[in-house]
Each structure stands twice: as structure tokens, then as C-alpha cells.
Write a structure and sequence with these properties.
With 397 residues, this protein is of the alpha+beta class. It has three domains: 121 residues, Orthogonal Bundle (Butyryl-Coa Dehydrogenase, subunit A, domain 1); 100 residues, Butyryl-CoA Dehydrogenase, subunit A, domain 2 (Beta Barrel); 159 residues, Butyryl-CoA Dehydrogenase, subunit A, domain 3 (Up-down Bundle). It is built from twelve helices and seven strands. The strands form two sheets. The chain has a four-stranded antiparallel beta sheet, with no helix packed on it. Helix 3 packs across helix 6 and helix 9 runs antiparallel to helix 12. The chain is globular, with a radius of gyration of 21 Å. The structure holds flavin-adenine dinucleotide. The site of flavin-adenine dinucleotide has 23 residues, from strand 1 and helix 12.
């Protein structure tokens, strides 16, 4: 990138970050409690993000987007999640889908046009990887796409589909054709006008209630150019997994950071009541700040490593390595375990005012939201995959 282009990209990111900070403070904060209580979609926040052009941050610059890198996207997600964890998760999941198209679909004119359209109309993209009968294994599908006469047909029973009913399109995993093996998958972009969506289960959960993620039966058909070129095996390893684990970690950190910020406000209030003395809770605050900093450095290091990958095929090849797979798995497990622990420690600092649901120090929503982290692609499942890789991986460093 020449210097002028780089400066323009930096300015554009700075203005997106400023917009997200404003939306977090003025919109997401105002609606977070209602979104959580009613398990409703954070429509005001997503409308404000649309209005500010934040939904196209991950679209490459040559297609009209801001071309944000991993660290920049993570900053946007972590900023928003400090106000509303569900909104941060919706934004992260949307960016993951945009990245899958931007990094694997651009040999197709259809997908280049689709991303130009996304910049103009700020389409919101959702994801359907889960399926009744595959037990949380994103790398296998039962459903298959059928292609005939330039059209596709696809039916899928998903166990969990975040904000599908509020999205403009869904990226759906499925088998390449009816004879393909369970792990021979492709991604299909299903647009709102191409689908009949029937909700099959409820979404009355402990946390992340605003993601609105019940089960759905999707029946769809459309032009077959909406099948993303290449294999999902590659887009999973090279894009979906690193984007998911880094962006999720950043937003889980945002939830934990807001919990610690509430605890810090509480401790300062105590200190003001007894000038000249350090309240005992300040020691606990200092201790939890260490864990929060470690968590932040963990996702930031991964984002920096990702952004430092060589461009083109060399970088894509590195992402297929065991080293990268383990790095992403370790990050996800570490951050998903740290987030609820940090919120728990913030709660011990604040005490009953954090336990109550109607004080400025309430931490119930943070706690419940953070508990989803270890389940969202089960940590046990991830550790089991890491365990088999460890048998053959020799760490060169
Ligand atoms: C907030 C949220 C939003 C989501 N949004 C979406 C979405 O938009 N689209 C989508 O497709 N999905 C979504 N999901 C679903 C998610 O991607 C996973 O599919 C789902 O969380 C896994 O469900 P599970 O626990 O039943 O599955 P499993 O992974 O099958 O786990 C079931 C149980 O088996 C255990 N287990 C699994 N493997 C092993 C192992 N190897 N060793 C030991 N124990 C094991 C687990 O610990 C767990 O107790 C979302 C989930 C959450 C929490």
C-alpha cells in the first residue's frame, strides 16, 4: 500500500472507531438491559452501525469498503461489547461471514458485486454451521446443496442460528452434493428473498439473549453462482476459525473490561468515602486488572500475528499449518475461560450491588453473557482436536 492510500485507510478506520464509540455510549448502552430482559434483537444498535457504514469495515478497499485488518475489526467489536455483549457478538459474526466471502469468493464476479452491494446497502450477514444431527461439529454436514440448470436448492435444519430472522443473507455450510462425504463441504450464500425460514426452537437462554439464536429450518433456492467457490475445509481453516476465535476473544474481553470498569468505579466510590485510606477492595481490583491485561494481550498478539501474515497464497498457506490451528484454539480456550473468571472477580469486589439487577454496578448480564464463551464451539471439542494435533506438532520456537 502506498503512503497516501495507507493514510486514507487509517483515517477511515479512526472515523469508524469514533462512530462505534459513540454508538456504544449513546445507543447500545441505552438499550442493553431491555435487549437482555426481552431477549430481543438490538435493532437500534445495528441500525446505527448501518447508518455509520460500520457493516462494510471488513470489505476490501478496492470494492468500496474500509478494508480493515484483524486488529481493527477486533477493536470495533471489543468497543461495542463493552456496552452490549450481544451487539458485539452480532457485529463479530457478521464480520466473520464478510471475511469468508472477501477472502474466498472474489474470483467470482457475483461475489465481487455482492460486496459492492453490501457497502452500499449495509447488508447484515448471519451464519448457519450448526445442524441437527452433527452435534456441534462445524466440519461436517448432513444437508447437501443440489445444483441443476444454473440453480441451487438447499434445505437445512440448524440447531442455532444467530439473528437469522433479522439478517439480509445467511452463509450456510452443507455437503458439496448429495454424494459428497460429510466433511466435503461448501458455503452457500442464501439471500432473504431466496429463503423460507421456519423457527423450530426457542432462544430463552442465560446470556447472549440479544443474539436471538433459536433453531431454524431453512428452505432455499437461487442462482448457483451463490455457492462460494472452493472448499469450506479451506475457508474454515484460513478464515472462519481465525476470524471467529480472534474477534470473539476481543468481544469477550470487552464484556470483562466493562465488568472491571464497574468494579473500579465502585472501589473509587469507597475510597472517596474514607479519604486517606485504601479500601481492601482496591487490592482485589489490582489483581483482576492483571488478568484483564493478560487477556487483552492474548487476543491482540493473535490479531497482530494475523495482520503480519504475508499477503496472498503464502499467508493463506501458513494459516493451514498446525501452528496456526493450535494458536487459534489456545486463544479461544484461554479467553473463553478468562472472561467469566474476570466477571466473577469483579462481582466479589462489588458485592451485593453487582448481584442486584438494577444498580449501576449490576453484573448479571456480563456474567451470563460471558458463560456462553466456553460453549460456543465447545471447549472440550476444541481441546480434543488440539490433543490430536499435539501428537505430531513440534514447536520450532
Ligand atoms: C451465543 C451463541 C450463538 C451461536 N450462534 C450460532 C450461529 O449463528 N450459527 C450456528 O450455526 N451456530 C451458532 N451457535 C452454536 C455453536 O456454534 C455450537 O454449534 C454450539 O454451541 C454447540 O452446541 P453443543 O454444546 O450442543 O454441541 P457439542 O459440541 O456437541 O457439545 C455437547 C457436549 O459434548 C461435549 N463434547 C463435545 N465434544 C467433546 C469431546 N471431544 N470431548 C469431550 N466432550 C465433548 C461438550 O463439552 C458438551 O458438553 C451459537 C452458540 C452460542 C452459544
Amino acid at each position: 500500500m502506498d503512503q497516501r492510500v495507507a493514510e486514507r485507510a487509517e483515517e477511515e478506520f479512526a472515523s469508524l472507531l469514533k462512530a462505534v464509540r459513540r454508538i456504544a455510549a449513546e445507543v447500545a448502552t441505552a438499550h442493553a438491559v431491555d435487549v437482555d430482559q426481552k431477549a430481543r434483537f438490538p435493532m437500534e444498535t445495528i441500525a446505527a452501525l448501518r447508518e455509520a457504514g460500520v457493516l462494510s469495515a471488513a470489505v476490501p478497499r478496492h470494492l468500496g469498503g474500509a478494508g480493515c485488518g484483524m486488529m481493527e475489526l477486533a477493536q470495533l467489536c471489543s468497543t461495542l461489547s463493552q456496552a452490549c455483549g450481544s451487539s458485539g457478538m452480532v457485529l463479530a459474526m457478521h464480520y466473520i461471514q464478510v471475511a469468508c466471502i472477501a477472502r474466498h469468493g472474489l474470483e467470482s464476479e457475483f461475489f465481487r458485486d455482492y460486496l459492492r452491494d453490501l457497502v452500499q446497502h449495509q447488508h447484515l450477514l448471519a451464519s448457519m454451521t450448526s445442524e441437527v444431527g452433527t452435534f456441534g461439529d462445524t466440519r461436517s454436514s448432513i444437508c447437501a446443496v443440489e445444483r441443476e440448470g444454473g440453480r441451487f436448492k438447499l434445505t437445512k435444519d440448524a440447531t442455532t442460528g444467530s439473528y437469522c430472522a433479522h439478517s439480509d443473507a445467511i452463509l450456510v455450510t452443507c455437503r458439496r452434493d448429495k454424494d459428497a462425504a460429510a466433511n466435503d463441504q461448501v458455503l452457500v450464500l442464501v439471500k432473504r428473498e431466496d429463503w423460507a425460514l421456519r423457527q423450530t426452537t426457542s432462544w430463552d437462554t442465560m446470556g447472549m439473549r440479544g443474539t436471538c439464536s433459536p433453531g431454524f429450518r431453512l428452505e432455499s433456492s437461487g442462482p448457483d453462482q451463490q455457492v462460494v467457490p472452493g472448499a469450506f475445509a479451506d475457508s474454515a481453516a484460513q478464515t472462519m476459525v481465525p476470524y471467529s476465535h480472534i474477534l470473539w476473544s476481543s468481544l469477550w474481553w470487552g464484556i470483562a473490561a466493562d465488568a472491571v470498569a464497574r468494579a473500579a468505579t465502585f472501589v473509587r466510590g469507597q475510597a472517596r468515602q474514607r479519604p486517606g485510606s485504601v479500601p481492601p477492595t482496591a487490592q482485589r481490583l489490582a489483581e483482576v486488572a492483571i488478568q484483564l491485561q493478560t487477556m487483552k494481550q492474548n487476543w491482540q498478539a493473535a490479531a497482530r500475528d494475523f495482520d503480519a501474515l504475508p499477503e496472498g497464497a503464502a499467508g493463506m498457506d501458513e494459516l493451514l499449518s498446525i501452528e496456526w490451528a493450535l494458536k487459534c484454539n489456545n486463544l479461544k480456550i484461554a479467553c473463553s475461560e478468562a472472561a467469566p473468571q474476570i466477571v466473577h472477580r469483579a462481582l466479589q469486589i462489588v458485592g451485593i450491588l453487582g448481584y442486584k439487577n438494577d444498580t449501576p454496578f449490576s453484573l448479571g448480564r456480563h456474567y451470563r453473557d460471558a458463560l456462553s464463551a466456553a460453549l460456543m464451539i465447545s471447549n472440550d471439542r476444541i481441546v480434543a482436536k488440539s490433543a490430536s494435533m499435539m501428537l505430531v506438532f513440534k514447536d520450532a520456537s
